[in-house]
Model the fold of this input.
Amino acid sequence: MAIARISRIAPLGDFVSLRDAMDQLFQESFIRPNGWSGPAGQIAMPVDLWETTDAYHLRADLPGLTPEDITITVTGDTVSLSGETTAATDVKGDGWLRHERLARTFQRTFTLPVQIDNNAVTATFTNGVLDLTLPKSDAAKPKTVKIQASKT
Done:
């Protein structure tokens, strides 16, 4: 004996509101290629930032760039990374089938909890990964105070 199941039909549930349809249209129209995010025209720059006793360390992925493409600015407790990529110029305009690697800018600024020793900052760039060591200024480092006992 077969058991009949009753299910409700909701014909309006299959229709999308005009607002939802327009939102989806705009989202699909302005979506950027994978690997791009942030404000339009800016490169996503994944960053790791961590602290040790004497310094902060910042690691940023910047594939396809050279050290000359990157500007690092350290002022007080703030570090900024910025620069610009260049568009390919070796292909003539009529030859492009897809051209997503355009000239783009990037900028990230980080405010750290303590002042940085600007004169001791070091930067290395290997295989598209930027490594910064941002030593804490001497005034910001913890100090041990020796107590002197007085004789009475």
Remarks:
- The domain at 38-88+102-140 is CATH 2.60.40.790 (Immunoglobulin-like).
- The longest strand covers residues 55-61.
- The radius of gyration is 27 Å.
- DSSP finds one helix and seven strands in the chain.
